[in-house]
C-alpha cells in the first residue's frame, strides 16, 4: 500500500511539473491529430476545414493521414471553375490545392486571376482584401506563368493601411469603428501579399509605418507569470469572438509573413517572440481540431521566419532521484523539435521552491552529441530531496546565430528531486493522564509490518513519535503526516502529526476527546499516513489497534454521524429467507377417490350404452354439400363445448369459460338451425310422397 501511495504522489508531481515546462511538438501531437482530424464519409465538411486538417498534417510531417484527395480535388476543381464562386471559397480552394496539387491547368488559374484582381480594386473591407490578395499569392506559387501582379499596389497598400489604429490593431472596414487584434494579423498578412504581388517596389515609408504598427501591437501583448506572451481579442461583434489562441496565431502568421515579404529587419524583442512560442507550446495538446490548427500553424510560422526562431529548453523529465543517482538533462530544440545550432547550456542558479534564496552555481552542462542532450554528471552537493527551480541560460556559439535565434534570457524549470527518507525511533505508548508516566510502550518498524495491541481508558493518553531524516541527513517535513483512529463501527477520527525539526510527535488525551469520540468504547484501528511528492518511501501503515474504555454517554451527548453506505453493497447477497408453510389438511383415502371417479364416469358409460340400444345411425345425415357442411360444423361445435368443459375442469376459470361458451352457443344455434331446417324439409318431402 505504501508503494502505491508513493507512486500516486509522484504521478501528481509529474503532472504539476509538466504544466510549468514548455516542450516542443512531439509524437503525442501526431497521435492527437489522427484522432481529431478524421473525415466523415471520405471528406471533411468544407474546404476550410479540409485545409486546416491538411495544414496540420503538413506541419507535423505525419506520413499516415486520411486519403481524401479524390473527393476533395473534385470540390476544388468545381469551385475554381465556377464563375459564381465567392472570393472566400476560391481562397480556401487554392489553399487546399497548394497541398493536394489537384489537376488544374493554367487556363483555370488565369480565369480566376483576372476576377481576383477586379475584386482587389473593388474591395470594401479587410476580409475582401485578405481573400483576394491571398488567392493571388497562392496562384503565383502554383502557376508561375499566370500574371498575378498588381499594377496599383501602392494604392491597395494604402487602402489596407488606412484601416489601422493607433494601438497597432486594425478595423475590419471603414464603417466599423471597433478594432481587432485578429484583424491586425490578417491585415499584416494581406500587406505581405500586396508587397509580393506589386509590379513595382512599394514605397518604403509605407513599410516603415507598418513596422511601427507592429511594434505598437507588441506593446499591448499580454503576459503570464511563466513568461508566456499572448494577444487577447477584445472585439466581440458580428465577426464573433476570437480566442487568444486564434488571435495570437493570426498575429504571428501576419508578422512573419510581413517580415519575409518586406525583407525588413523588424528588430522585434526576442523575449516576446520566445514568449509567444511558449504560449502556443503551453497549450499542450488541444482538444479541438481548430485549436490544433491554430497552434501548429503559428509554430510553423515561428519555425521558419526572418524575425527570430525561438529555442525551447526542456528537461526530458522533471523528476530526479537521488537514490538512482539520476543525471540532470535538458534538451534544446526549435518549437517543432528540430535540432538547435551549436550552443552550450549553463546552470546559473537553483532556487528552493517557496523561497527567494538561491544557490549560485554557474556551471556548464556537458553535451552528448549522440543523443543531442545537455547533462550534468552529478547534482550539486547541497541538493537534497525537495522541489527546486533550476535556472538555465543558453549561450549561442556562433555570433551570426544570435541574429537568427531567440534564446531569451534565463529559463526557469521546476525540478523535483526525490530520495529515500529514513524513518526511525518510531514508538507508541500509553501514558497516565496525571503524571505522564509510561504505562505501556512499544517500538514500531514503519518500514515493515506492525500489529500492536494496546488498551487505555479515558484518563490516559496515547503517544506516537518518530523521526524523519532526508538523504543528506537533514530534517524532513512531509506534506502529509496523519494519524487515523477507526472505530469498529467505522467511525473515523483523523489527527495531524506535528513536528519539531525531524522529530514528529502526537499525544491524544482521551479525557478531552471523549465527546469527539462520541463516548464510543471498543476497538480502534490505528493507521499512520506519511507522504510527500519527493519521498520515495511514502507509506500508509496499519499499526495495530487500541481498546478504549470510555465512560457512558450523558443523555444529551452527540450521536455518531450516520456512515456512508457503499453503493455496491445493494448488489451483494441478501439474508436467507426462511418460510414456515401451513401443514397440509387431511385427505381421504386413495380408494375412496377412485370409487368417486368411477361414479362420475358411470353416467357417460350409460350414455354410450343408450346410444347402442337405440341403434343410432347416420342414415339421415345430409348428403348435399351445403347441408352436410353445416351438419359437420354442428357436431364439431358439440365436441368443442365438451372440450371447453374439460378445459374448465383442468385450467380455465369461470369467466373465461362462460365467454368462450357464449361464442360457441351462438355458433351452434346458427349451424344447428340450418341442419334441423334441412332435416325437417327432407322429412316433409318424404311424407308428401
Automatic annotation (TrEMBL):
Biological pathway: Protein modification; protein glycosylation
Gene Ontology BP term (one): protein N-linked glycosylation
Record's protein name: Dolichyl-diphosphooligosaccharide--protein glycosyltransferase subunit 2
Membrane-related topology note: Multi-pass membrane protein
InterPro entries to which the protein is assigned, alphabetical: Ribophorin_II_2nd, Ribophorin_II_3rd, Ribophorin_II_C, Ribophorin_II_N, Swp1
Principal subcellular localisation of the protein: endoplasmic reticulum
Record key words, sorted: Endoplasmic reticulum, Membrane, Signal, Transmembrane, Transmembrane helix
Family affiliation: Belongs to the SWP1 family.
Quaternary context: Component of the oligosaccharyltransferase (OST) complex.
Function: Subunit of the oligosaccharyl transferase (OST) complex that catalyzes the initial transfer of a defined glycan (Glc(3)Man(9)GlcNAc(2) in eukaryotes) from the lipid carrier dolichol-pyrophosphate to an asparagine residue within an Asn-X-Ser/Thr consensus motif in nascent polypeptide chains, the first step in protein N-glycosylation. N-glycosylation occurs cotranslationally and the complex associates with the Sec61 complex at the channel-forming translocon complex that mediates protein translocation across the endoplasmic reticulum (ER). All subunits are required for a maximal enzyme activity.
Organism in which the protein naturally occurs: Nicotiana tabacum (Common tobacco)
GO CC terms of this entry: oligosaccharyltransferase complex
Record's subcellular location: Endoplasmic reticulum membrane
Superkingdom of this protein's organism: Eukaryota
